[in-house]
Amino acid sequence: MRNKSFIILVMTFLIIIPVYMIFIKTPNEKSEIENRYLVTFDDLEGKSFFDKSFQSTLADALMDQFIMRYRFNNMKKQVELFSINVLEPLYIKDKTDLTLSFVPGTGVVRVGNSNYLMNYVMDYKEEYEEQYLSRFSQINQLQKDFPNIRINVYKPTQIHEVDFFDEPNDIKSFGKFYNDLFIENLEVNYSSLKIDNVSTYFNYFYGSDHHWNNRGSYQGYLDILALLNVDELPISINDEICNEQNIFNGTFSSRTSFVYPGDSMCAYHFKDLVDTDVSSISSDYGSVEVNSILGKTLYQVEHVENSNTFADKNTEILPEGYYYNEAFPAYGPLSVFDSHQVEKKSILIIGDSYMGPVLPLLSNHFNKIYAVNPSTYQELTGEYFDTYQFLNEIEVDEVLIMYTIENYFHPERYGAFEIIRK
Hints:
- The chain is an alpha/beta fold.
- The protein has helices at residues 2-24, 52-65, 69-91, 126-145, 166-169, 175-185, 198-204, 214-227, 251-255, 324-327, 359-362, 374-381, 387-393, and strands at residues 30-31, 36-37, 100-103, 108-111, 117-119, 150-155, 189-192, 237-248, 263-270, 276-280, 289-293, 296-304, 334-338, 346-351, 368-372, 398-402.
- The strands form 4 sheets. It has a 9-stranded mixed sheet with strand order 7-6-16-14-15-13-10-12-11, with helices on both faces. It has a 3-stranded antiparallel sheet with strand order 3-4-5.
- The protein is 34% helix and 20% strand.
- The protein has 3 domains: 2-67, no CATH class; 70-119, no CATH class; 126-408, no CATH class.
């Protein structure tokens, strides 16, 4: 009798929960913690039941809309990580600061005993090498086709590109091989962020996210000034403030269900920043039309000045929710930074999310910065950004290409980041 009652109870639970999630519960459309949109049951509309995409969408929706999903995921990960901590000493006898440990089911690895997480080291793929060489050929051709505009390349190096994990983990990585391709094949000015040891990485990057922090991005800014031969002193740091109360959990945290501690979000205050007008093609920023570039209407974003760049100068802590995208915004897929310093040069910067923190600082050294993220540009406009059309129509003195290494070969974004359109 007890067994029968238990079975009825379980069956009732299995029926009621899906009915509640599909027909009653208000769907959660976005996860602020994971910084992504969630799959809802509305996404099943128009799909055939016999279509494979219906089954996968239904599974994703059930997972994303499940009651107390964060709590259950965390409990599962906590159990897995407890098992790791118990079992690791049995098969990893001499764990060091450079020992890499996989977080089960995530593709993320942990560095030593720290709370720093990273993607696994780079493997060799022939198609990656071919795509690198193709991209380098495009960049070299761009310089030949525009001999009066200096082309520069800067690469924000990430931890999975380095080779100092190889010997301690008895593995063979190919990040150095790919990085050597840059040096050997680019015929333009080139430099990259130097990460010589794991301590430098810890200093420059978040433990819970793949982006560089305020220290790393400031070093990138200094590197770019040197690459571009800017004969001016860099912007001085006034002080640094950190948000100890609201912890930043980045993409690695979301992929590991937030079982490792996040990061304190820190930002610099700078001295003597030049007032800069910023406009973007993204209509999210308002309705005040500024002008048009390549047929795209630009809207005023904000007025960048001493008091509101990165943080309010008068606050002792950063505001709640002041995380990477707010502290270092990308400003839009095509933005113009106009400092009205007409005696200085203008530059086109083509990059990804890593360029957000350096753009307001570089604007102090240029009259105009045209900044474009080709991937989000394509997503917003439905068109590929045409570098040749831009350089033929807009006058600039320099071009800076600052992709991270994935955007030289990433299959889903490769087309958007091509320089030459066939």
